[in-house]
């Protein structure tokens, strides 16, 4: 009995140890946006915008503050509202383009360490200002933050932008053989739209890939398992190619640790959804020709992506991972990846097989 | 004490002021018969006493008294006790006494089980007469290895009690231990087996029932076959079985009478119900007081909306609603069944809807509490249900103190307690702790009979 009393006493005293967060007193931040201020007296500081729904009306409210460090912002933001703002329900983090160019690791690190935040919080780069994106009134929808979440989810499913969360970003950042990527979204006239992939070098935004190249990029990462590909062979010919199978193979050959050859082979199998042009899709010879055309087109696109990566000395595809496996640690360290990516010969080969052209023959 | 003279006076003196004592005399035969009229059967009285002593001569009396149903008594105490037990005491020549058992208990007839109902299987339940109850078991177990040991419990009530076991299956140590325990009980009287069970409890402070009681003769028989000891008590429509396991309370004869797959599934359902009834309300309290992070975003808005008008904090809110449910349950149990239905309607529909509309509680909590109340009824044994109700309140309070940490803390304490409980030398939480994989096939699942070895 004495034992039970002691246990209950200890437990009762524990109640002071954990801060209660009663659900209706909280303001759940849904989306949080960061940008750096480029002009004016606050130059160099962070502008933090949060959006959260008001419980009774479910209207979205936004709040903005200007601070020096990411975490400081919570103090100032809390002063501006009657609700206790909490981070536990954050679904996406928007980072302004200008801040991303300066480097985002400090920011990600803060979130990554916080146990309250789920590691699957989506990360995206905003062309323009996150504050404007969050606080504008859109005619077609009420809650812009949930629209952003849905848009990111949908576009990632359709393989036009990567699904990037803070866990993945941190993993890619901390791995020296790969550079992180992130989706780009921008504010259009009447809504939000996705704009391809942002390519990082370490934690700094370097360049971006437009949407069409983004799909080819996913073919290279092997993450694009199933989907549609719009191929413009030339001005008259458009092919909508839907594929069922994508096999990616990376082979690295080393010659005395000097010449590094990477053979990137992609095997695509699929069927034509739509074709506009002069070829007869029932003619096998012409179809073989079309397969070659598609291959050529894809190889071109891949080469362009590789050129971009070489130009900026970045490796967002993770080719470094395959090279790292082939050499010992010391050589790998000396290689200074990904700065040495232009020393590597990358040979992409694409094989396309059209297995079906439609119901009617 | 052997008394030769004035036997009748002595016995009447002992039973002084017992106006229900009936005396019949056959003056010409010098025979006096004493009995309690409400304990004996009229037909038995006529056949055994009235008829034999009618129209006979003096010298024939001795022959009648030699019949085997006439048992000569020499001790005054046993004569009085005989009368109290429903025998008729025949006094011859005011010096010789014989008892004739003409006891016919006035009890209800055997009827269907009301608490432990089944869909498929025998319907009959024990009644208040121990003889009938024993006959129900004997009828199911026609074996000479079924042993019945008789006891008397209660210095005043002298309640008859039978201890049943099967020789060869039940360990003799167990039987001996239980016998010692029963002999150790020193009370004036006992009304029901469920009271007796509490005298036998090893840990009276535990919230869990430590002996398995059932009102079903078929369950009792199967317990006997499993090597357990059964106790029957006169005046109680229950039997107890020991050693008891926690998991016995989650078994129903339906599991065995229906096909094994259905039995396994319904058993799984019961364990799910156990988890729900223990943790659902506590989970609500923990989430709304500490762990807002885990609420799905689509539910979040509705959650805040329903909570925002409520004036109490989640703990008070949950305790109020849980108490209302307890009130309803208690009211429903005490009321006659015809009025009992009204309680359901008033309580469930009127109070439930009105409480939400008045902003008194959130509708999500109403759902949570109702589900956990329904789940508690899925557990087949009403005594275990009551224990779980108490545990539920403890979990709610723990959740309000430290959230999930508190719930886990309480759960571990509960597990430690369950594992430490012992019943007649057997662990209460067997076969989970100590683990016995062989026995799991009849505890967690109900495997096909072909899988059981004899």
From TrEMBL, chain A:
It comes from the Bacteria. It is found in: Membrane. Pfam families: Spore_GerAC (PF05504), Spore_GerAC_N (PF25198). InterPro entries: GerAC_N, Spore_GerAC-like, Spore_GerAC-like_C, Spore_GerAC_C_sf. One of its GO terms (biological process) is spore germination. GO terms for cellular component: membrane. It is a lipid-anchor. Keywords: Germination, Lipoprotein, Membrane, Palmitate, Plasmid, Signal. Residues 19-185 form the Spore germination protein N-terminal domain. Belongs to the GerABKC lipoprotein family. This is Ger(X)C family spore germination protein. It comes from Lysinibacillus irui.
TrEMBL record, chain B:
It is a multi-pass membrane protein. Its main location: membrane. It is found in: Cell membrane; Membrane. InterPro entries: Spore_Ger, UPF0353/GerABKA_families. GO terms for cellular component: plasma membrane. Keywords: Membrane, Plasmid, Transmembrane, Transmembrane helix. GO terms for biological process: spore germination. The chain crosses the membrane at residues 268-290, 340-358, 364-386, 393-418. Belongs to the GerABKA family. This is Spore germination protein. It comes from Lysinibacillus irui.
């Amino acid at each position: 009995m004495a034992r039970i009393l002691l246990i209950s006493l200890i437990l009762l005293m524990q109640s002071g140890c954990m801060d209660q967060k009663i659900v209706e007193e909280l303001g759940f931040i849904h989306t949080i946006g960061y940008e750096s201020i480029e002009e004016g007296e606050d130059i160099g500081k962070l502008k933090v915008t949060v959006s959260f729904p008001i419980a009774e009306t479910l209207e979205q409210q936004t709040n903005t503050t200007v601070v020096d460090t990411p975490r400081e912002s919570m103090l100032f933001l809390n002063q501006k509202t009657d609700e206790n703002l909490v981070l536990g329900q954050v679904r996406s983090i928007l980072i302004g383009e200008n801040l991303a160019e300066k480097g985002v690791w400090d920011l990600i690190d803060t979130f990554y360490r916080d146990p309250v935040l789920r590691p699957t919080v989506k990360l995206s780069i905003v062309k323009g200002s996150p504050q404007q994106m969050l606080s504008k009134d859109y005619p077609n929808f009420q809650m812009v933050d949930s629209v952003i979440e849905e848009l990111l989810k949908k576009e990632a499913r359709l393989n036009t932008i990567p699904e990037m969360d803070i866990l993945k970003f941190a993993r890619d950042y901390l791995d020296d053989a790969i550079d992180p990527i992130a989706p780009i979204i921008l504010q259009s006239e009447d809504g939000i739209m996705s704009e391809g992939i942002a390519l990082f070098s370490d934690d700094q935004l370097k360049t971006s890939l437009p949407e069409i190249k983004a799909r080819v990029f996913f073919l290279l990462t092997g993450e694009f398992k199933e989907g549609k590909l719009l191929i413009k062979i030339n001005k008259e010919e458009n092919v909508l190619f839907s594929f069922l199978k994508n096999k990616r193979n990376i082979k690295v050959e080393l010659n005395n640790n000097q010449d590094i050859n990477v053979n990137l082979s992609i095997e695509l199998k699929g069927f034509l959804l739509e074709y506009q042009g002069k070829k007869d899709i029932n003619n096998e010879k012409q179809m073989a020709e079309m397969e070659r055309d598609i291959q050529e087109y894809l190889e071109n696109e891949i080469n362009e992506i590789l050129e971009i990566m070489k130009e900026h000395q970045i490796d967002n595809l993770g080719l470094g991972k395959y090279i790292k496996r082939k050499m010992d640690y010391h050589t790998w360290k000396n290689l200074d990846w990904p700065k040495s990516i232009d020393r590597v010969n990358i040979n992409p080969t694409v094989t396309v097989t059209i297995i079906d052209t439609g119901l009617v023959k | 004490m052997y008394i030769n003279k004035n036997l009748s006076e002595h016995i009447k003196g002992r039973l002084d002021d017992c106006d229900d004592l009936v005396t019949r005399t056959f003056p010409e035969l010098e025979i006096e018969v004493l009995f309690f009229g409400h304990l004996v059967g009229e037909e038995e009285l006529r056949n055994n006493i009235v008829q034999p002593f009618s129209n006979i001569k003096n010298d024939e009396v001795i022959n009648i008294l030699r019949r085997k149903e006439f048992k000569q008594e020499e001790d005054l105490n046993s004569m009085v006790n005989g009368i109290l037990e429903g025998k008729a005491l025949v006094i011859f020549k005011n010096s010789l006494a014989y008892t004739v058992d003409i006891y016919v208990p006035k009890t209800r007839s055997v009827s269907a089980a009301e608490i432990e109902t089944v869909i498929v299987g025998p319907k009959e339940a024990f009644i208040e007469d121990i003889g009938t109850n024993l006959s129900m078991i004997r009828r199911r177990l026609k074996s000479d290895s079924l042993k019945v040991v008789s006891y008397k419990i209660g210095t005043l009530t002298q309640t008859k009690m039978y201890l049943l076991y099967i020789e060869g299956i039940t360990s003799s140590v167990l039987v001996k231990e239980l016998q010692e325990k029963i002999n150790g009980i020193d009370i004036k009287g006992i009304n029901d087996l469920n009271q007796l069970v509490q005298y036998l409890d090893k840990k009276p402070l535990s919230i869990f029932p430590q002996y398995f009681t059932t009102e079903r003769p078929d369950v009792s028989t199967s317990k006997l076959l499993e090597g357990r000891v059964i106790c029957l008590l006169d005046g109680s429509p229950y039997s107890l079985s020991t050693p008891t396991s926690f998991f016995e309370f989650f078994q129903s004869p339906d599991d065995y009478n229906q096909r094994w797959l259905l039995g396994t599934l319904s058993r799984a359902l019961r364990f799910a119900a156990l988890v729900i009834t223990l943790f659902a309300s506590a989970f609500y309290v923990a989430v709304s007081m500490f762990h807002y992070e885990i609420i799905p975003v689509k539910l979040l808005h509705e959650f805040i909306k329903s909570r925002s008008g409520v004036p109490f904090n989640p703990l008070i809110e949950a305790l109020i609603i849980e108490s209302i449910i307890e009130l309803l349950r208690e009211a429903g149990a005490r009321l006659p069944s015809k009025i009992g239905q009204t309680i359901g309607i008033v309580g469930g529909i009127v109070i439930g809807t009105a409480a939400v509309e008045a902003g008194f509680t959130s509708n999500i909590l109403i759902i949570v509490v109702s589900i956990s109340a329904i789940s508690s009824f899925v557990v087949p044994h009403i005594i275990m249900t009551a224990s779980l109700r108490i545990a539920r309140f403890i979990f709610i309070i723990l959740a309000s103190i430290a959230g999930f940490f508190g719930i886990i803390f309480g759960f571990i304490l509960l597990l430690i307690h369950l594992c430490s409980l012992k019943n007649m030398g057997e662990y209460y939480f067997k076969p989970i702790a100590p683990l016995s994989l062989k026995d799991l096939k009849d505890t967690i699942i109900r495997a096909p009979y072909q899988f059981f070895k004899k």
